[in-house]
Amino acid sequence: MEPIIIEGTPKTPTVKFDASDGVFEIKGRSIPENSVEFYKPLVDWLDGYKEDPLPKTIVNIRLEYFNTSSSKCILDVFKKLETIHKSKYEVEVNWYYEEDDEDMLEAGEDYESIIRVPFKMIEIEE
Amino acid sequence: MSFNVENYFSDLSDRDVILFYKGNVDSDVINQILDSVEEKMVAISEQPKLRKRVYNVLVESLQNLYHHVDRVPEDFEDQTSEKFGLLLVKKVSGGYKITTGNFINTANIEKLEEKIKRINRSSHEEIKELYKFILNHQRISAKGGGGLGLVDIVRKTGNKLVYEFKQYSDKYSFFYLNILVTEEV
Predict the structure, then answer these.
(1) What does the pLDDT look like over B14-47, one tens digit per residue?
(2) What pTM did the predictor assign?
(3) One-character DSSP codes across A29-46
(4) Which residues from A are below 8 Å from B27, CB to CB?
(5) Residue A103 in contact with residue A71, Cβ under 8 Å?
(6) To bridge B16 with a disulfide, which of B81, B91, B98, B145 should be the other Cys (CB 3.0-4.6 Å)?
(7) Do A33 and B30 touch (CB under 8 A)?
(8) Is the pLDDT of residue A28 over 70?
């Protein structure tokens, strides 16, 4: 599978999904007006990946801001990961949040409570 | 028509005004407003936590305008703005006040007001649960909204939504929404 590599912009995150090492990353700001347009290719890519995933997939989410419309798309990404996890493959989500950013920590906890995939909450110093 | 959308504000020249905008709310305008407010908050060394919260609420407020405003009335002074909106960001004691304004068809008032009242009746815990429920169960609408904007604003600010519908004509009203963002929820 061709990896997805997208450079970040002021409104969209940096993305690196690489099926050769099983490490996926979404980083930066995700506040586009049309989030579906941005995330649909990622969700479609995961549909392909889940057919033949690596034994272990690590997902690093390191967002500074995301809007509510992205929040639904991010949930769609997690739902694909949940399918992989259900098929007995190891999946781990590392949810990064800046020190004191309770809102971002809570957002991660929301996903953790909805999605049946192990989450690790990781605080980063500003 | 004597109605002037700015008359709602008595203090636009106040030095505490961080930003006032009136006009079309498109993607570029949203970028510029976000950059400008963020720069100003950084320049006055605003607390990171409050700065982030203001930024988040601003994103949702502006994108609510972007996704949901109704067309301006036929006799309104600005006919060129497809998505006419108004925004005031003001520094107040302990935080920031964000006010948005937009035209709404009279027929759409009831639905919006019911939604706001439901949110305002909810406790902080109920808001968190409502957010999670909508996140998990509602699809993104044809307009591109997720139905989460107002819920997210109240969740992040911990404050009630203060609003007003000012009648413009039989068919139109102007909707003002006031949001107070403080450091502590």
Answers:
(1) 889 999 999 999 999 999 999 999 999 999 999 9
(2) 0.93
(3) EE--S-HHHHHHHHHHHH
(4) 33
(5) no
(6) B91
(7) yes
(8) yes
| Structure-derived torsion over alpha carbons of residues B152, B133, B144, B97, reported in degrees to the nearest 10 | -10
pLDDT of residue B146: 63
> From B139, which residue of chain A is nearest by alpha-carbon distance?
A72
Domains identified in chain A, total number: 1
Cβ contact, residue pair A71, B66, below 8 Å: no
B135/A114 touch (CB, cutoff 8 Å), yes or no: yes
A126 shares contact with chain B (CB less than 8 Å) = yes
DSSP-derived secondary structure letter, A64: E
Asked if pLDDT for residue B2 goes beyond 60, the answer is no
Domain with A23, as residue range(s), is 4-124
Q: Residue B180 has what pLDDT? A: 97
pLDDT at B139: 73
Could you give the CA distance from residue B115 to residue B134 in angstroms, rounded to a whole number? Answer: 13
Residue A125 forms contact with B (CB below 8 Å): no
Residue B44, CB-side half-sphere exposure with 13 Å CA sphere: 12
CATH of the domain at A100: 3.30.750
Provide the residue count of chain A: 126
Domains with residue ranges and CATH for chain B: 16-182 (3.30.565.10)
- Cβ-based neighbours of A17, under 8 Å, separated by 6 or more: A3, A4, A5, A24, A25, A42, A45, A46, A49
C-alpha dist (Å) from residue B70 to A4, B107, B143: 38, 11, 12
**Distance (Å, whole) CA A22 – CA A14:** 17
CB contact under 8 A, A67 and B55: no
Preferred mutation among A68, A109, A111, A114 to probe B, highest tally of B CBs within 10 A = A68
Inter-CA distances, A55 with A17, A50, A87, Å: 16, 11, 11
Q: Which of B60, B128, B151 is facing A67, going by the closest CB pair?
A: B60
